[in-house]
Amino acid sequence: MVLAMSGGQAEPAPSPDALPSFQAARQAYRASDLIVLDRQDHVLQRVRQDFQGRRGDWLALEDISPALLQAVLVSEDRRFHEHHGVDVPAIAAAAWQWVANGPRRGASTVSMQLVGMLDEHLRAYGARTPAQKVRQVVQAWALERRWDKDEILEAYLNLAPFRGELVGVDSAARVLFQKHAAGLNARESALLAAMLRSPNVAAGLLARRACGVLEAMDKPEACDNLTLAAQSALRRSAAPFYDGADLAPHAARRVAASVHLSPSAGDEGVRVRSTLEGDLQRAVLSSVQRRLGSLNAGVGVDAAVVVLNNATGDVLAYVGSAGAASTAPWVDHAQALRQAGSTLKPFLYAQAFDELRLTPASLLDDSPVGLATASGLYTPQNYDERFSGWVTSRTALAASLNIPAVRVLTMVSPEAFHDRLLRLGLPLTEEGGFYGYSLALGSADVSLLSLTNAFRALANGGRTSPVRWLADKAQDAAVAGPPVFSESAAWMVGDVLSDRQARVRTFGMDSPLETTIWSAVKTGTSKDMRDNWCLGWSSLYTVGVWVGNSAGDAMREVSGVSGAGPIWQDIMNWLGQREMMTQPAMPEGVVQQRVSFEPSFEPPRLEVFMAGTQQSVVRAVARQDKPLPEREDQAIAEQKMQGGSLAVGRPRIAGPVDGTLIALDPDIPPANQRLQLRAANVPQGQEVYWLAGTQTIGQGSVSYWLPMPGRQVLTLTDKDGTVLDRVSIQVRGATLAVAP
């Protein structure tokens, strides 16, 4: 047995069997990226997993430019096809040069360098010891007996370090020269060959060495301006892979987290088949970029989109940001927590239908309401003279009216509604009492992904189940999760949200909520227009869209129907072009009944009911308004001090009450958000006037005013300007650009 000396101790020379076969070396190779495929096996995205080196795919010799093969052999091993692993004349020449001039260059052949890559005992960061040199020679001879020359050269080019963290010819070509290795020309090949000897030298020295390679290749004319070419290539050392798909960066990270690198990997690295559809992903990206470009929403507007398969929960498209147009392109906005706005209302009505508290024909009072809470009087507002008074549940939900939703929550209770939202998978961080009645208007923070999956429960007969990221043909059957709502309640909510006539009072007949297929949809806008949403479903798919910005700043004149709505419409119509989708069949627990209303504030219609709750006539009961207690504010007290007197029944402001907090709803057109000003105890024939600050805004015991954001002092006066009453209110929301 041959012995080698290392550190004064003898160690056995390696057995030739210690080297892997070519096939084993190729199978052991791993690209540094996880390659995420769509469900049709097309590449969507590369996700970096290994940060020890940046490796591309393993390339066969026929996929590498002949110019590079020539350049490498000229530079590293001119007698490669003649020796058997060790170039004896080259070793002798190197030894003579070492004696004469000191160490200049080694005489390692390609085979000797390759065994240094394959054998961990030979991986030295400095000069190898004599024992390692002996081992390297022995292993190179063994390698040449087991591998053929093409296999040695192919493995060498795929395992050799080129520049910085770039390992292998695929990564070097696609990063430094932004092309595939098959297309490398002589100049590029010479530069890469020169890097093999000194991977991290400066551009000038690299160019001089590459010029020597070109002269040896009989191409001296290619040396012109080679330094500039070297500088240009080195500036790209951290560039993305050429021709690397970049369709789903955020989804790919979710997929990578799901697999934990467990799938078997071939010589081209770990490839994972996701649930995403490449064509749909492209269509979603195109819509996002086109629609955001047309918004006048200020700087930094961004978007996120989720498309789910109703039956399986497969994530079919997933856009976390607007990409290059985003101020934070790597932030996954589909996972960020944002205020839900009106998007929680469908779940509230579904719960009320389930508990038989309401039917779509039930009447709700759309008039001011004050609810006592631990932090004071909660007074939600929905300002539109056409909406005041009685409305049906169908109209209240489809037209997204706030006051009726709060009244429904008083029936259900915030705690019970909070529990139902948790069962839907929404990530609420506080208890129901924390949100209180504002939970009906979406004061809780949710993510787009969780909210879209919650809407999918309504599309899926009230049942919820997790989303899926990994494609598995064996699991394509429908997934039935636990029921959160009855099938009947979920279907009725879908019927309401698909009713074009019911939402026309808020959104009009022609809005971005109309699609070419049957669909149910709900918009939402958070406080101060920071976030706007549009979520809905067809019989096969659920689509959720968020538009906002990373910093959470308010946007100008953008709401759920104008910001997120057009993107949602584009996607639904795109899906409708490939598959016809109609309304799901009515469940057995739902019946239809023609119903009329007395008085006839809504026309008679064919309505849907839970079996056993149907009615043919719905009558409104006259409201008994209780007079508010007499109140003396500072203005009236000052009048008393000046000798004035207050008679019983003096005209006063009955609404809004002092201290009212008003929130403008961006989902409702500005012209429909006028605050009703009501005065009590006004004698017949007496003229009274309304002032906001010093500006006259109305006349008469009942008037309507478009509220402007900020603290507003409303004053009631007689025709002589005498102050009769005064209240202070706070208006929140963006300025509405409409003439009062």
What's the total helix number?
22
- Arrangement of strands in the largest sheet: 10-9-19-18-17
Q: Over all CA atoms, what is the radius of gyration?
A: 37 Å
How many separate structural domains? 3
CATH topology of the largest domain: Beta-lactamase
Strand residues, percent: 15-25%
- Unreliable residue runs: 1-14, 262-268, 371-377, 381-387, 624-648, 736-740
Q: Give the overall average pLDDT.
A: 83
The global form is: elongated
Give the CATH level 1 class of the largest domain.
Alpha Beta
Number of strands: 30
Q: Main β-sheet: number of strands, strand sense, barrel status?
A: 5 strands, antiparallel
EC number: 2.4.99.28
Family: In the C-terminal section; belongs to the transpeptidase family.
Protein name: peptidoglycan glycosyltransferase
Keywords: Carboxypeptidase, Glycosyltransferase, Hydrolase, Multifunctional enzyme, Protease, Transferase
Descriptive keywords:
Penicillin binding protein transpeptidase fold, Beta-lactamase, five-stranded antiparallel sheet, five-stranded mixed sheet, disordered N terminus
Draw up the topology in text.
Blueprint (H helix, E strand, L loop, with lengths): L2 E4 L2 E4 L9 H7 L4 E5 L5 E6 L5 E2 L10 H11 L11 H14 L8 H9 L11 H17 L2 H11 L1 E3 L2 E2 L1 H8 L9 H12 L5 H14 L9 H10 L13 H11 L11 E3 L4 H16 L8 E8 L5 E5 L18 E2 L5 H10 L8 E4 L4 E3 L2 E3 L10 E4 H6 L3 H11 L1 H10 L8 H4 L9 E2 L1 H12 L27 H11 L2 H8 L12 E6 L6 E6 L3 E8 L11 H19 L11 E9 L6 E6 L6 E3 L14 H8 L10 E4 L5 E3 L11 E6 L7 E5 L2 E5 L2 E4 L4 E9 L4 E10 L8
Parallel strand pairs: 3-8, 5-7, 20-22, 24-30
Antiparallel strand pairs: 1-2, 3-4, 6-7, 9-10, 9-19, 11-16, 12-15, 13-14, 17-18, 18-19, 20-21, 23-25, 25-28, 26-27, 26-29, 29-30
